[in-house]
Amino acid sequence: MPLLALAFLAFIGLGLPDPMPGSLWPSLRPHYEVPNAALGLVLAAVAVGYVAAGMLTARMIAAVGIGGVLVGSLAATTLAAGGQAFAPPWAGFVALAVLAGFGGGAVDSAMNLFAASRFKPGHMNWLHGFWGVGATLGPATAAALLAAGFGWQAGYAAVALALGALTLCFLATRKRWEDGTPRPPASRANPLAVLRNPVARLQVLVFFLYTGLEAGAGQWVATIMTGARGATPAEGAVAATLFFAALTGGRLALGFVVDRIGADRVLRLLTPVALLAMVAFALGVADLVALAVCALALAPIFPTVMARTPARVGPGDAAQAVGLQVAAATIGVAVIPAALGLGADLAGGPWVVPWLLVGLGVALTAMIWRLPVRR
């Protein structure tokens, strides 16, 4: 199987388990007899594992190579999902969530490094589009199994089976992943050393802001529509679905043109478009159209900046830089949507959230324009 096709499958696999805790929570929570707030503990456990993996992936690649990291981390995610399918005690379930996050974070970092080193920015956009496919298939599979009369455990079992098959595919192709992918010397697998590079620091901030903005918009749009725009809950859910569908569709579509236009040119053209769409949404001008345009313009930022990392920071620091970017992205997803919620509470309603998103958009646009361009 071509490595690009297997990489597409890997990103689908990355997306599969991410929505499972939330999708299965209505059935999972009564089983463990825990409060709704306990979902936050599960998500925090996954985030802790993800951040740790991002910080350590460069060292693991230096020790066992990118092929070894991919096989081992996919095996870890398989073990985590399989263990959760057996409905262990609550403490064990949370511990397995940390393992799932660590395995997912290591796969994410290693695959992004491989793709940035071997593929074009257009391919990277497709890869991240396929993550959205996996994130859609996960809840759909869980819903089908629940509708068929299976318990929540079946959802995790299905994910474990899919990830187990993917692990075997990567085990069979392990050596091929090493070809042409730089293995960083152990002396360069140092986060502090990489962060002395101002471009690396700027890219880490870009990923923190971008993923926080993406997650914040996606998580809060339904509340904004219902709490500040008079929409029904169903209409709010449609707005959230539209945002994520446009984000995934944008990555798949822009993958065909980003290499022709130029990666840096695409970033500089589309970030101001996203900002203008955020302003339109904040003003209440054509809400759904503005939301869709915003998502389409944001779509290439994560994969395209990631694709340019080796060229900007150098092949020797690329593995550690990519890991730091994945860690920063995870922290952004955890921190910024919560901060937006705090802002809404202080302001007395969700009406303020779109304007906070505009502020984030201004900062993100300024940072994108400060990134060095290809000469």
TrEMBL record:
InterPro entries noted in UniProt: MFS, MFS_dom, MFS_trans_sf, MFS_Transporter
Span of the signal peptide: none
GO cellular component, one term: membrane
Keyword Transmembrane helix: yes
Keywords from the named record: Membrane, Transmembrane, Transmembrane helix, Transport
The UniProt record lists the keyword Membrane: yes
Ranges that cross the membrane: 33-53, 60-81, 93-114, 126-148, 154-173, 204-225, 237-254, 266-283, 289-307, 319-340, 352-371
Residues in Major facilitator superfamily (MFS) profile domain copies: 1-375
PANTHER family linked: BYPASS OF STOP CODON PROTEIN 6
Protein name in UniProt: MFS transporter
Organism: Falsiroseomonas algicola
